[in-house]
Specification:
The complex is a heterodimer of chains A (340) and B (284). Chain A is mainly alpha-helical. Helices cover 66% and strands 1% of the residues of chain A. Chain B has a four-stranded mixed β-sheet. In chain B, a hairpin with a 5-residue loop joins strand 6 and strand 7. Helices cover 29% and strands 20% of the residues of chain B. At the A-B interface, strand 1, helix 2, helix 4, helix 5 and helix 7 of A face strand 2, helix 3, helix 4, strand 8 and helix 8 of B.
Chain lengths: 340, 284
């Protein structure tokens, strides 16, 4: 077998994963059932260079957008529900929160463009193969609806128009919260693409947790029960979906527990548990409810930052591109269909 | 095989044009890199020492549309017959792999699929090109590419990559890199013809005992529907920095949308449940 001579590190073979034996990975054929076992990180690469180009998206623009878009989308649902169920203070808080969150997130989106002045080019075409294009059209409907709903709720004017706008925002809100998962999954970034089944559920659960958190933070104690319920459902569903995803992904799940992304996700779990406990036990105490709400908001944000950085980490290391692809080739021939 | 230009709506497209890069005859002269930069006025992106053999270009990017890889391998050189007829002895030696990488102009191009503005388009030659007056620099095409080809130009914000010399093709000319290649390692032509030529070359190399020779990206049945620019390699693809089994990410997009629709519905159900629980609690 070939091996490289002099490398940047001096002697050959001194850097793990640098010059390895490709057939080692191939030898693991027929062991699909043992995905949880991390395959030996032996693979070949071109001087350790990543195979794919890393996303050029920046923090806080993009993870912030995922967090705020989710917060807005689920808050619109909470706002419309609160209005229908006679919880006006909660409705006002949720609708104003939705408008604030979506406005901030739009600013982040435009700011992250290489050519911000050309933002409207997003609406030049209608293209279902581009989740970013689909998302732009969803936002084109959602943002005005949220604006009208919030204005009507805060001023008390145009109640009928406000109710219509609230309903429209509540219908589009879940789409705003969910499509961003498709946006990241529809890339060659291993930690995102391989999670394409569970990431939408993680994102909508995280959105529910955030909107519930905002309701707990901003609504009076007498009206915050639906917000608490939504937050608890979101926190539980997010934890379950995350567990499912990382179990199924095999070695590509590593960035979700290691490094910067791992730290964000651990913080998310701690905040989520603390916020859920506070919401469950101390909802009627205004200060406890507010603190719990803030913790839940923080947990949702930390999840988005964690997912964002896990993607970057998996793109930067050729291991996560090469090893699963070699495994796939060994298991079922070239690019065996896996859609489902 | 479906013709991507016809599938994109061209009524009477030209035959699909592409590259066959035969790395077994690449001598690492980098004439392709220079010709590409010069013809396309691609800006300088820094001159750095990478320590990666003779490769200071490092990889494809917004400002590198042809990239010559250099791989030094210490391995036994097989006993055989030297060109002058003398029997050569088996010995340790250095095998130097050189390969000129380029945009693959995939049949199913992820960059093109995910582009939200329509800046990326399929040409009548079946190639994939960015319209720089449309690109708003969203950067979505960059992580979508399974090969790490397209990238954002610093200080410009837009995405750039190989155009397969769209301007030269329109004028009936050969792309600059292929024109400049002194060993015909880079061959340009109708893809069907290139595939025949590549198969013949592979047979020839196998016949001569180069068992490790293989084609990469020529199979229309692969995860990207075959590449418009494909290669003859002398080692595993990842040795050259190429993905061993690339798949166009949008292949799974229908599944992604289904899961997202289920998740969005789930969120609505969760909100309904949150209010229902409270309402029941209020009554009870």
């Amino acid at each position: 077998m070939s091996s490289s001579g002099v490398t940047r590190q001096g002697q050959q073979g001194t850097r793990p994963g640098w010059q390895a034996r490709p057939e080692r990975a191939a030898r693991r054929r027929g062991r699909r059932g043992e995905q949880a076992m991390v395959p030996p990180a032996e693979f070949t690469s071109y001087y350790g260079k990543p195979v794919i180009n890393s996303p050029v998206w920046h923090s806080p623009d993009i993870p912030g957008y995922f967090f705020l878009g989710g917060l807005a989308g689920a808050s619109s649902l909470l706002g419309a529900g609160a209005q229908a169920m006679g919880r006006p203070a909660l409705a006002r808080a949720a609708k104003a929160g939705a408008l604030g969150a979506i406005s901030l997130s739009m600013a982040g989106l435009v700011h992250d463009l290489g050519r911000p002045a050309r933002f409207v080019n997003m609406l030049r075409v209608v293209k279902v193969t581009s989740p970013m294009n689909v998302g732009s059209w969803i936002l084109a409907g959602y943002v005005p609806a949220t604006g009208v709903a919030a204005a009507a709720a805060l001023t008390g004017r145009v109640p009928r128009l406000g109710a219509t706008a609230s309903a429209a925002a509540a219908l589009l809100g879940p789409a705003v919260a969910a499509y961003t998962a498709v946006l990241v999954s529809d890339t060659a970034v291993p930690a995102w693409h391989e999670g394409h089944r569970e990431l939408p559920f993680i994102f909508t659960s995280s959105a529910a947790m955030a909107a519930g958190g905002l309701g707990l933070l901003a609504a009076p104690a007498g009206q915050n029960a639906p917000a608490r319920n939504l937050a608890l459902l979101g926190a539980a569903a997010e934890a379950a979906a995350f567990e499912l995803m990382t179990r199924r992904m095999g070695m590509v799940a590593e960035p979700y527990s290691a490094g910067r992304s791992g730290a964000y996700l651990r913080a998310s779990r701690v905040l989520s548990a603390a916020g859920a406990a506070g919401a469950l036990l101390g909802r009627r105490h205004r200060a406890v409810a507010a603190l719990s709400g803030a913790a839940l908001l923080g947990a949702s944000a930390a999840t988005r930052w964690g997912v964002f950085h896990a993607g970057l980490a998996s793109a930067a290391d050729p291991k996560y591109t090469v090893v699963p692809q070699r495994q796939r080739r060994a298991d079922g021939g070239p690019a065996s269909a896996e859609a489902g | 095989m479906t013709d991507p230009a016809a599938a994109s709506g061209y009524r009477d497209p030209s035959p699909r044009m592409g590259f066959f890069t035969d790395t077994s005859v690449c001598i690492g002269c980098k004439a392709c890199e220079v010709a590409c930069k010069t013809w396309n006025a691609v800006p300088d992106d820094g001159l750095v020492l990478t320590g990666m053999s003779y490769d200071n270009t490092a990889g494809l990017s917004a400002d590198t549309w042809r990239h010559v890889a250099f791989i030094e391998q210490r391995r036994p050189v097989a006993a055989g017959t030297a060109p002058d007829g003398e029997a050569a002895e088996a010995a340790d030696g250095v095998r130097w792999l050189m390969a000129s990488d380029v945009c693959k102009h995939c049949t199913h191009a992820a960059c093109l699929d995910v582009c939200p503005t329509g800046a990326l388009f399929r040409t009548e030659f079946g190639t994939v090109v960015v319209q720089e007056d449309i690109c708003n620099g969203c950067g979505y095409c960059i992580p979508a590419c399974p090969y790490g080809v397209i990238d954002q130009r610093k200080g410009d914000g837009r995405a750039w990559k190989c155009t397969l010399c769209y301007d030269r093709l329109g004028a009936g000319m050969t792309p600059a890199c292929a024109q400049a290649c002194p060993t015909e390692s880079i061959q340009f032509g109708p893809l069907d013809e290139l595939r025949e030529r590549a198969a013949a070359r592979l047979d020839q190399l196998h016949g001569e005992g180069t068992a490790e020779a293989r084609l990469y990206g020529e199979d229309p049945g692969d995860g990207v529907g075959g590449d418009g620019a494909f290669f003859l390699l002398l080692d595993e693809p990842e040795v050259y920095g190429l993905p061993p089994d690339p798949v166009v990410t949008t292949r799974d997009l229908p599944s992604m949308w289904r899961h997202a629709a289920a998740a969005a519905t789930g969120l609505m159900a969760a909100a309904a449940a949150a209010f229902a629980a409270e309402w029941l609690g209020r009554r009870g």
